[in-house]
Write a structure and sequence with these properties.
Shape of chain B: globular
Order of helices and strands of chain A: HHH
Number of strands of chain A: 0
Largest interface: A-B, 23 and 31 residues
Helix content of chain A: 55-70%
Radius of gyration of chain B: 20 Å
Oligomer: heterodimer
Largest sheet of chain A: none
Number of domains of chain B: 1
Strand content of chain A: under 5%
C-alpha cells in the first residue's frame, strides 16, 4: 500500500503523505524547534557582548 | 585549582573567552545539521572543497577593503557559490564527475586566494585568513556568525523536510512536484554561508572541521535525522567548549585545539560508539535466548 502511494504521489490525506510531504503543512510546528534555539543564540550573544545587565 | 576556576572562571573573567564560546555555540547550531545533511548526501569532501573555495573571494575582499568583515564575507560567499555552480556545470555538460570538478576548482581557488593574500598582505594576514583567530572574534564578527546561524535554523525549518526527502529519495521529491534543483541550491548556499561564518573563527583550512567531524561522530551515536543533527550540534559545542578551555589552560592555539578535541571524540566514537563502531562490529551483543 505504501509503495503504491509512493509511486502515484496522489494520496492526499493519508498518513504517509502527511508524514513525508516535502512541501505540505506543519510549517508552524517546524518553527517551534527553530524559534527557541534562535532566541537562545541571541540571548547568549547579548551576554557575550556585555549587553545584558 | 577547583572545578569552578578550571571550567567556568575563564568565561566569567574574560570577554574574549565569552565571545569565542558563543561563536562556538552559533557555529555548532548552524553547522551541526548542515554537516549531517552533507554526510547523508555523501558530500563530506564537497564541504571541505567549498571551505577552500571561499578563500579567493575573502582575499579579494581583503585586497579591496583590508580586514573588513562584511566585504570579506560577501567575497567568500560569492566565491564559494561560483565554485559550486561551476563544478556542477562542468559535471553536467562534460563526462567528468562532480567530485573531480569540485577538486579541480577548489585547488584553483585555494592557490588563487593564497597568491592574492601573499602578494597584497603580510604573513600575519595570511595566517589569519588560513587559520582564523576565534579568540579575536569582535562584536561585528559575533553578530555575523549568530545571524548566519539564525538564518540557517529558519531556512532548515522551511526546507528541511524537502532536503531530507531529497537525501533519501530524490525520485519521490520529483514525483510530488518538489523543487529538487532549488532545494539543492539553497542547501549549497547554506553550506557556503556556514563556511563563511566558520572562516572568521577557524580560518579557511579548519572552517569545515566543526561541520564535518561532529556530523561524522553523530553517525556512530544516532540513527534518525533529527537525533543526528542534535547530536552533531551537541558534539560541536562540547568540542568548542573543551577546546577553548584546553587552549586557555595549556596555552595552545584555540582553533586547532577545538578541532583536535572533535577529532578525539571521533576516534572514541569509531572505536566505542553504539552504532556501527569497531566495538559493535567485533563484540556483538549476544542474542536473546528463550
Amino acid at each position: 500500500m505504501r509503495r503504491l502511494i509512493r509511486i502515484d504521489g496522489n494520496a492526499e490525506g493519508t498518513p504517509f503523505r502527511r508524514t513525508v510531504s516535502p512541501l505540505g503543512g506543519g510549517m508552524l510546528a517546524q518553527f517551534l524547534w527553530a524559534l527557541p534555539l534562535a532566541v537562545l543564540l541571541w540571548v547568549a550573544a547579548a551576554w557575550a557582548m556585555g549587553w545584558l545587565p | 585549582m577547583d572545578v569552578h576556576a578550571a571550567l567556568i572562571q575563564p568565561f566569567v573573567e574574560f570577554e574574549f573567552m565569552r565571545r569565542a564560546l558563543v561563536a562556538c555555540l552559533a557555529l555548532s547550531v548552524g553547522c551541526g545539521p548542515v554537516g549531517v545533511l552533507l554526510v547523508l548526501r555523501r558530500m563530506s569532501l564537497v564541504g571541505d572543497a567549498l571551505s577552500h573555495a571561499v578563500l579567493p573571494g575573502a582575499a579579494i575582499g581583503f585586497m579591496i577593503a583590508g580586514l573588513s568583515l562584511v566585504v570579506m564575507s560577501l567575497g567568500g560567499l560569492v566565491a564559494g557559490l561560483v565554485v559550486a555552480i561551476l563544478s556542477g556545470l562542468v559535471a553536467r555538460v562534460t563526462p567528468q564527475r562532480e567530485d573531480a570538478s569540485f577538486a579541480a576548482f577548489y585547488l584553483i581557488s585555494l592557490a588563487l586566494g593564497v597568491l592574492i593574500v601573499a602578494t597584497h598582505g603580510s604573513n600575519v594576514d595570511l595566517m589569519h585568513v588560513l587559520f582564523g583567530t576565534i579568540l579575536a572574534v569582535d562584536d561585528a564578527s559575533l553578530l555575523l556568525v549568530v545571524s548566519i546561524a539564525t538564518l540557517t535554523l529558519f531556512t532548515l525549518a522551511v526546507v528541511g523536510r524537502a532536503l531530507i526527502v531529497e537525501c533519501f529519495d530524490p525520485g519521490f521529491l520529483r514525483a510530488v512536484g518538489g523543487p529538487g534543483a532549488v532545494v539543492h541550491f539553497v542547501f549549497l548556499t547554506l553550506v557556503v554561508l556556514n563556511l563563511v561564518a566558520g572562516f572568521h573563527a577557524l580560518g579557511t583550512l579548519m572552517a569545515v572541521g566543526l561541520m564535518m567531524l561532529p556530523a561524522a561522530v553523530a553517525r556512530f551515536w544516532a540513527d534518525e535525522v533529527a537525533t543526528l543533527a542534535a547530536t552533531s550540534s551537541a558534539v560541536a559545542f562540547a568540542s568548542g567548549y573543551a577546546g577553548l578551555l584546553l587552549s586557555y589552560h595549556a596555552d595552545l592555539p584555540s582553533g586547532p585545539a577545538i578541532i583536535l578535541v572533535a577529532g578525539g571524540v571521533y576516534i572514541v566514537s569509531v572505536v566505542a560508539g553504539p552504532r556501527g563502531s569497531l566495538w559493535a562490529k567485533f563484540m556483538p551483543r549476544r542474542h536473546l535466548e528463550a
